[in-house]
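Researcher: I've got a protein sequence and the SMILES for adenosine-5'-triphosphate. Could you write out the 3D structure of the bound complex as structure tokens? I'd like something to compare against our soaking experiments later this week.
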Amino acid sequence: MIHVESLHKEFDGGTLRVLDGIDFSVADGESMAIIGPSGCGKTTLLYILAGLTAYGTGTVTVNGTPLQGPSRDTAFILQDFGLLPWKTIWQNVCLGMKLHGVSRPEQNTVATELLETLGLMQHRNYYPARLSGGEKQRVAIARALALNPDILLMDEPFSSLDTFTREKLQDTLLEIRHSHRLTMILVTHSIEEAVFLGDKIMVMSRRPARIRAIVNNPGSGTRAFRQEDAFFAACRSIREMVEET
Ligand SMILES: Nc1ncnc2c1ncn2[C@@H]1O[C@H](COP(=O)(O)OP(=O)(O)OP(=O)(O)O)[C@@H](O)[C@H]1O
Ligand SMILES: [Mg+2]
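Model: Sure. Here is the predicted complex with adenosine-5'-triphosphate in place.
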């Protein structure tokens, strides 16, 4: 589904090398977690995959087609949620659908279903400022899913949340991923989150970022995994890799 080969990216007229030969593939319905030091280029990589930032050299193909700008099949949840403060929860969720000319009745059906699934229906007329961090994050997820994307890109989606809310949302994400058959790429600083949510985990080096390893993580995908020995073993092995970075 997503195929990246020899990807390079530089800023500031070539003086700041950020991505230095990145190669990976993510299959249809698969999830990959990305972990790496601050400033190495993870957000830059997601912006490139979302079609929002041009890349230097290399190839990026999505479904066999070279990437050419943003697509409604790819949803992107930004590091800071990206909600519009002057629009209500309902309007935020409908925004993408409105921009893409989805009819009003269909917007209503989709938004109602998503807000109910994510437990936000009673908040629909509030503005984002009134919501807790976890609620804001759920609105961002609802808005991203409203266009029924094939690919979901997430940049540290749960980093500002407490452990309880965070694990609940991770579980919700797991269910949504399976029910919507999403291909997912998630950037996180949490080793536990990477191991819980990633079918594979990409460990990046310091800037200019190279891939240190892509680790298969076959146990992920169920809620129970969090309590299993295989989960703790995978966390330990990723931690060792990260500490060497
Ligand atoms: N538009 C830009 N112009 C110039 N430099 C940029 C631009 N965007 C990012 N950078 C630089 O590229 C490097 C990588 O940034 P990026 O945001 O991708 O890091 P990151 O891995 O997501 O870090 P963090 O984990 O802290 O979010 C940083 O040094 C940053 O300052
Ligand atoms: Mg970042």
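Model: The chain has seven helices and ten strands. The helical segments are 42-49, 89-99, 104-117, 133-145, 163-180, 191-197, 229-244.
Researcher: Great, I'll pass this along to the crystallography team.
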